[in-house]
Amino acid sequence: MSHPFATIWSDAFKTPPNYPPHPPIQRRGNMIKVTVWNEFHHEKTQEPVRKIYPEGIHECIAGFLRKDEEITVRTAVFDMPEHGLTEDVLSDTDVLVFWNHMLQDEFSDEVAERVKRHVQAGMGLVVLHSGHYSKIMRLLMGTSMTLRWRHGDRERLFVTCPSHPIAQGVPAWIDIPEEEMYGEYFDIPKPDDVVFTGWFAGGEVFRSGCTFTRGLGKIFYFQPGHEEYPIYHMPEIQQIISNAVHWCAPFRRLDAPLDNVAVNPSIEEEYRE
Amino acid sequence: MSHPFATIWSDAFKTPPNYPPHPPIQRRGNMIKVTVWNEFHHEKTQEPVRKIYPEGIHECIAGFLRKDEEITVRTAVFDMPEHGLTEDVLSDTDVLVFWNHMLQDEFSDEVAERVKRHVQAGMGLVVLHSGHYSKIMRLLMGTSMTLRWRHGDRERLFVTCPSHPIAQGVPAWIDIPEEEMYGEYFDIPKPDDVVFTGWFAGGEVFRSGCTFTRGLGKIFYFQPGHEEYPIYHMPEIQQIISNAVHWCAPFRRLDAPLDNVAVNPSIEEEYRE
Amino acid sequence: MSHPFATIWSDAFKTPPNYPPHPPIQRRGNMIKVTVWNEFHHEKTQEPVRKIYPEGIHECIAGFLRKDEEITVRTAVFDMPEHGLTEDVLSDTDVLVFWNHMLQDEFSDEVAERVKRHVQAGMGLVVLHSGHYSKIMRLLMGTSMTLRWRHGDRERLFVTCPSHPIAQGVPAWIDIPEEEMYGEYFDIPKPDDVVFTGWFAGGEVFRSGCTFTRGLGKIFYFQPGHEEYPIYHMPEIQQIISNAVHWCAPFRRLDAPLDNVAVNPSIEEEYRE
Amino acid sequence: MSHPFATIWSDAFKTPPNYPPHPPIQRRGNMIKVTVWNEFHHEKTQEPVRKIYPEGIHECIAGFLRKDEEITVRTAVFDMPEHGLTEDVLSDTDVLVFWNHMLQDEFSDEVAERVKRHVQAGMGLVVLHSGHYSKIMRLLMGTSMTLRWRHGDRERLFVTCPSHPIAQGVPAWIDIPEEEMYGEYFDIPKPDDVVFTGWFAGGEVFRSGCTFTRGLGKIFYFQPGHEEYPIYHMPEIQQIISNAVHWCAPFRRLDAPLDNVAVNPSIEEEYRE
Q: What is the ipTM of this complex?
């Protein structure tokens, strides 16, 4: 294979029976405010990671999202006060893109609760890679969020829900030449949709791209990109994350999650007046 | 109640706790070609129906959809050759909106199969009211599609999936002062989402707004509007149908449904070359 | 209506088209250890509640469950040390049936976490009425678990998933002459199945019987039984709770929730040896 | 690997963290009448297939099911009148187990419709391997039911829904040393549960064990066993098929699918009398 990040396009989708080229993605109509959050430690402590993401994973992701005219981007990292996820920042965020890895336990309980609250009130959430085990996801999902894992594998990502907006413009499968293996059983609640299913050369499968809804908030969990490989430089991966941002963007947003409400008089009493 | 089609806005969503006004719906980015299909018999044979829909239900629906700059509309009716749903028309249709009632058995088997094929290949489908029992829906769903029904009831439509795009701009519930009752048990496959659940004054409930996917095609079934009541003149109902058209519009469209494909060599053999 | 808890049987299911009488429920094969938990305060402080449940709601529920030869029952209440839900009790419990109401905030965080952990590891959970807002359910579901409510309504419970084991032996609908109204929007994750949907005379609908899975644990939330009405004395409600206990009983049970596991060598390396 | 059909047990499930041995499966309480249907042509025309299944695939499957005291079995094959699936046989069948391959088009339309009708009325259906493309499944599912395939691959079957009754007593994964590859995109409606996900050495993934419900009938599609390999001799595969029979067995069975029912007077009018 000549190019390390080439995509092998699907025969099934490309030729027989009659798969047309993916149409160009048009404008989608709404401006979206994105905050890209990154733990930002590996890039400072490991030379190989810094080579791949010299300004941090967040700047790589922010960079390709900024090319989308309908997206404005800010970034935040672990070392900022309140991890940069203050009440003001989250209130002004339509979609939070979240990458973390090693500092799961060190993450503030209070900030994790705050993010949960904003998701319940409508903020979109795109969780990448090890973020499956973030405090945020464990609070939102209610399962152990555990899985099996191994360094140094290779993944092929299959589209298993081709009509989903997050699969827009994405080929039938994508080869990721190097990736950390995440394998089943993945202890998650039943996803709304399994948009991508991963095949690993080491012999495993994984539900690599899953959607969930919590309150008014839409959530997309996406398993790729271990920090030691240039996965967020792949155009197909960028397309998926960009699609996810558009899909997660809320059209309803509350200031707080819904609360129990006593109703008196009844709807029928009001209606009959 | 002063206005017969007024909407009682939800206390839960409007005020405590902090429900903001529905934001205006912005442009959504893509042009959509819609074909509105109507049986168009009641309007010609029953004077009360003609009074409500003088040019037919199809023209009422086409009329409000045409106000959307991103939608172009054609119409078709039962009495046209091939019911107006020729290969050419369907190939040029992104979303088919379908209303029928009495002529379920008389509908062409061949045309029903053709519509099914186009849905499987990606065409969106919005099925209204008695269309639950159309040959098209029975072919696509695989269940009996049966229900309990009664003339002369009153419905309240609750949003039970407020983050769904089809609920965009729609209040927490909508009162429909007169409606034919459709009641559970409704024999459908488990829907992807139950966006609306109906309450009937006569004592029944119904899954009144359901989404399904078949192949690359998205389907929305929406229980309102019996032909004897001016339900498609209600702005909230128009908003829902318009939202559904946008949601069902495909971004992938094949010329034919997918077929079984023999794969040789394997992906791995190709990849390793 | 002569009898206050009579059930109106469904015409749709009973006669045309050919609905047979519900077959008797046979043995289901496994012994199940149930713990019935009750807040047990209303019964001590309010005379009308004591009249309905003189020994407490827990003893009423334990009483009808004990008639099932495949079930053994213990009970526990709020005022016991650790609310009676110690590590030993939960480890020896296949299914926990849980009723609470007023002391949501006073419930121990530690015990709530312990119950969550046991559910993730396989313990079944049947949550009744106000338990939707228990700390346990909020931890397991990840949404606000809020709803709209009102005293003094009447409910009709429809079976909306008749093939589900929890609907076994249950008629098409059940009338509950007096019930506290719980209405949509009910802020829950999408249920695996909505087995029962409630209609309220006051004009509301509710997803009154919902299943969820978290880890290896099965969960059934069931909206009926406000303490001021003798709802748990109704044979149909007893049948549903008994069915739910059988459905929630685990066949796999871990000592703890699953954990992340590093895999080395890979499955393929092991397989090829 | 010493034994060609050995199972590599999951480390994740077996040891850390604390996975207990699968408990023995107890009696499940109900007698089930099973009809095992087989095309039964390969076994007569191809010597290698006859060697593996000397009396036909149906007799192999019937053989291990007969060891279950709660199951009684009859068999039927393509060459019988009406393929052996007469009205009498189906009316007396709780669960139909169905294997076919080459004679998809030659299968009687009338019999396919009859099977569909019985499933809608409550008969359970276990569809094996190429049965995905049977007329029966295409009628029941409403999608193209197509996939990608290739001879001569190897499969590893992962449990992706360990709390499902069909996964009872099944290890975390099962190795099938030789199998025909079936790969995504598999054009099915969203399954109720994906109990098993397949990994193929040739580089593909597949939703290999899926549940669906149509009307009152439960359906399990299970991708293994190509006729050239002794897959139905594997104890784990036998356990899964046996579990599926128990899971699909109906507790409600109509004589015919449900029909539309006019309701008059309303439930409320009846209730208030």
A: 0.91
